[in-house]
UniProtKB/TrEMBL annotation:
Positions of the Cysteine-rich domain: 3-88, 139-223
MF terms in GO: oxidoreductase activity
PANTHER family: LACTATE UTILIZATION PROTEIN A, UNCHARACTERIZED PROTEIN YKGE
Pfam family, one: CCG
The species this protein was found in: Arcanobacterium bovis
Protein name as annotated: (Fe-S)-binding protein
InterPro entries: Cys_rich_dom
GO CC field: cytosol
Record-annotated membrane-spanning stretches: none
Length: 262
C-alpha cells in the first residue's frame, strides 16, 4: 500500500516530530509513504475566521497537490491531525462552492473521501490496534475537540494506546472538555481561554501522568505551554510519537517535548 502524508502546516513548520513519527510508524507497518513537496496549509485558519477568498488559493493548492490520489498514485492520504482532517472533509468543498468554484468543490470532496486521520487509517483501513509500540510511561490522553466533533475519530486513539506495551494509560477527568485553544479563540478570548486551560491542567495533573498525549499539535502547544509555565513536569507528545517507538527501537525525535512559549 502507498499513501501520501499531509503533515499539516503547524507540524511541518514547528513540530516536525509528528510527521516524522507518522512516517516511521507507517513504514514499519509496511506502508510506502510519499511526502508531496508542494503541500501547504489546508486553509482552516482562514476559513474559521471568515476569510473565504483568502482561503481559496490554499484550497486550490491542496487539491492540486493531492489530486494524484484520484488517479491511483496513492491509496489514501494520511493526516496526523483530527482538526485538519475535519477541515478537509467539511470545509474545503463548502468554501469552494460558496466562492463559485463548483468543479474545484467536487474534486475537493473526492479527495476528502480518501483522506484519513492517523488513528482512523490504522484502525479502519489497516485493521490494526496493536502496532507493536512500546512506551513504558504513565500516560493520559486528551481527545481534541475537532478530532471528536468534526473528524469523529471516536475511541480509535484509545484502542491504539491500550495495546501499547509497557504503557500505564490513565483516564483523564472531563477528557472531552475543550483545552481553550480553538485557534484564534485563544487570542480573541484570552481570559476565557486561560480559565479553560487551567481546568484542563488541573485534570491532567490529577492523573499523575508523566506524558499527555493528543492527536493535534495545536492543542498540545497550548496545553504544554501552560504545563511548562506551571512546572507541572508533564511532557506533551503526539499520538504518533508514542506509537512510533518499539522496545528494540525507541522513538527519538529532535524534541519530544512541546516547549512553552512557542
Amino acid at each position: 500500500m502507498k499513501v501520501a502524508l499531509f503533515a499539516t502546516c503547524i507540524a511541518d513548520s514547528m513540530f516536525p516530530q509528528a510527521p516524522q513519527a507518522t512516517m516511521r510508524l507507517l513504514e514499519r507497518l509496511g506502508i510506502t509513504v510519499d511526502f508531496p513537496q508542494s503541500q501547504a496549509c489546508c486553509g482552516q485558519m482562514h476559513i474559521n475566521t471568515g476569510y473565504y477568498p483568502e482561503a481559496m488559493p490554499l484550497i486550490k493548492n491542496h487539491v492540486d497537490t493531492f489530486s494524484p490520489v484520484l488517479d491511483g498514485e496513492w491509496d489514501a492520504i494520511v493526516v496526523p491531525s483530527g482538526s485538519c482532517t475535519g477541515s478537509i472533509r467539511h470545509q474545503q468543498e463548502m468554501v469552494a462552492k460558496a466562492e463559485g468554484f463548483d468543479g474545484l468543490a467536487r474534486t475537493a470532496a473526492e479527495i476528502a473521501s480518501k483522506t484519513y486521520e492517523l488513528s482512523e487509517f490504522l484502525v479502519d483501513v489497516l485493521g490494526k490496534t496493536d502496532v507493536g509500540a512500546y512506551f513504558p510511561h504513565r500516560v493520559t490522553y486528551h481527545p481534541t475537540c475537532h478530532s471528536l466533533r468534526v473528524a469523529r475519530v471516536g475511541d480509535r486513539p484509545y484502542q491504539l494506546l491500550r495495546e501499547v506495551q509497557g504503557i500505564d494509560l490513565v483516564d483523564l477527568p472531563e477528557a472531552e472538555s475543550c483545552c481553550g485553544f480553538g485557534g484564534t479563540f485563544s487570542l480573541k478570548n484570552a481570559e476565557t481561554s486561560a480559565s479553560m486551560l487551567a481546568d484542563k491542567m488541573t485534570n491532567i495533573k490529577s492523573t499523575g501522568a508523566e506524558v499527555l498525549v493528543a492527536g493535534d499539535y495545536s492543542c498540545l502547544m497550548h496545553i504544554a505551554g501552560g504545563l511548562a509555565r506551571n512546572r507541572a513536569g508533564v511532557r506533551a507528545m503526539h499520538l504518533a510519537e508514542v506509537l512510533a517507538g518499539t522496545q528494540d527501537q525507541p522513538w527519538v525525535a529532535p524534541s519530544t517535548t512541546v516547549k512553552a512559549g512557542v
